[in-house]
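anyone seen this seq b4? input:
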Amino acid sequence: MSALAYIPLAIAVLTAACQGNNNNQQTTQTDTTELDTGLVTQVKVDTIQSIRDNYERIHAIKDWDKIDSAEVLGESTEGGIAYFYYKNNIMEKMDIKYYGEGGYTNDYYYFKDNQVSFVLEELYRYNAHMYAPEFDYSKTEKAEEFRFYYFDGKFVKGLPEQADPKWQAELADRAEVLVQQKEKISKLKRY
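predicted toks r here
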């Protein structure tokens, strides 16, 4: 058989291989997190589940090797405090409480591979201004709660969700601020 007879066979094999490769690329694309102008348009369920599993793992730790704390000044009207939790010489969790005159905020950070994986933010409101005669700390109520999911250090989802693009942009902006705060507050730790 002459060399020219093998050319159509080679072209057919190459075409089939390229089509198979294109199919693999399309499958890979739909299996990854797709970002659109910094906001996530599609997040795989198992990505969120892996973040939740990491949260559960850290939340279950009761015997921390080290717990460090530091006063947080200049970030709120009444100051704050940060706690850094270590297991096997790795900071797994950081809690920050910011005090204000009308309430306080708790930010709970959970880490995976030294990057933010999840942040739970709770906002509490006092029944009255803290210097008012009717102020009663026992009447403090949770006003809002937000959840921020990060994958490989990038924001992928925020809760509560709303269809409004402005809301989604605000959540993404807040998620970025939380990462910046983590960087700033982490410098206060001693270990």
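Confidence is low (pLDDT under 50) at residues 1-41. The longest helix spans residues 3-31. kinda curious what u guys think
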